[in-house]
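dumping this here before i forget
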Amino acid sequence: MSKILVVDDEEMMLMMARRILSTKYEVITATSGEEAIEIFEQEHPDMVLSDLMMPEMDGYELHRILQEKSGEVVPMMFMSANEGDESEIKGFEVGAEDYIRKPLRPDVLLRRVGIIIDHLDKVRGLEVAASTDPLTKLLNKSGVQKEIGELVKKSHGALLMIDLDSFKLVNDIYGHAAGDKILIAFAEMIRKIIRTNDLAGRMGGDEFIAFLQNVDDEKVLIGKANFLNEQILIAAKKILGNEMQIPLGVSIGAIFVPSEGNNFQKLYEMADSALYEVKKSGKHGIFIFGEKNHADGVSEVDGISQMRMILGERNIEPGAYFVEFETFQKIYQLLARMVDNYQKGLVLMQFTLAEEKFAEEFKEILLNALRRSDCVTQRGKKFLVLLMEATEQESDSMKNRIYSRLKNFNAREIIFEREQIRNETHN
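structure:
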């Protein structure tokens, strides 16, 4: 039901207007311009029916202030007992939708208000179509920029950049019709992780976005990321068949609002930067941008998602596998619990450089000198290495291979530490 704000300093006129209009519309009233402004900001009516001649603030001034505050056209209809044409002409000049004379005739008032509301409905229908992605029925890019852009200015919550991992393979192997089915199914999954007061859209291709109002708990976001990662595989096998082996998954870059600001474009860029961290660390997880992340590069991925990342989509380049520190910790904790299954053991090595300026060069040396099954992370001047299925002697050989490749700095400037983790029954 459309909502109409009626403004008049005469209580009798308010009662009459309410009695006439309430048969078809929700009616709210105000007895002054100041009160009308306050109610308008709280209730967001579809149109305003206002008396022209009121003390302190007339209808023209009220219309001007409402449009300034809302930043868009406010549908306004003026009413006046003035018999002259000047006020009517001025009303249309300032952008009024219509003008009606007092005393109010019920049939005329209902008909004129109905014309305005019908026109608004048609315009809004066109706006919805123009801002909706035709495939997924979520907001399109322009709709996102307008609606989520406005929402982040005045709300707090979490902005999520959501990307489908390995989706291109679906189009390449199964065709674009199958790819569209996956995108439609994925849009439904996104609808399941948002509420009625949240917004979601498709930025293009396999890239989506969502704003979750009043969400500031990392665990909530991690739970939603895990849900999407689990459900996309289930849906893909239903659509493409159980033989489908594409490592589909979901990567999410998240940022909390307004702790990182409320400018949509800047928030979008920061969330996109967080998304890149997930992609860089192996995909199928979530990275939450923030002060903690600036220092530590925290990537929040639970055990299931982490193992899927390792087994399904780890890098195929030669050399060791590089991950962020938080992910490294999870891999270490998981593998240490599984050490009973190894014939040899698990070796944890740490290299501490004297100067951080050589860190990039040392990182490249590590990655190229180690095996594809080994894992590396960095924290400033420190590098941690996990060697799978390795003895202390083999780790010594690995260390010597690394040192033999040093060119620009002395091996004596590196502090080396090692821990051997193995099943005691295999000693």
